[in-house]
Amino acid sequence: MALNDRVPPNPARPDRPRKARVPTGPALRVDPIGCQAHGLCAELLPGHVTLDEWGYPILPTGPVPPELLAAARAAVRACPTLALRIASE
Ligand code: SF4
């Protein structure tokens, strides 16, 4: 099933499908120049941040789940190069 199959039609323009809502919220972002692959963020957020084969973080594209926000803020504070941040979307 495609995403638009679950979105009801736009009542004002039934010929056009309504745009699907993308979840928004605070999301982790990394400065790829500033990051020096310490891996601390992955240690502090296991299961949310993983590391690539060189030790650079792979961040999820969506917002940080509310239950992980405190840990995400701690990871931002702990990043030794200040490369990790939380961006509001
Ligand atoms: S803690 Fe900071 S410097 Fe280390 S991998 Fe994560 S973002 Fe990069």
TrEMBL record:
Region spans: Disordered: 1-25
Gene3D superfamilies (alphabetical): 3.30.70.20
Pfam families, per the entry: Fer4_15
Protein name in UniProt: Ferredoxin
Species in which this protein is naturally found: Actinocatenispora comari
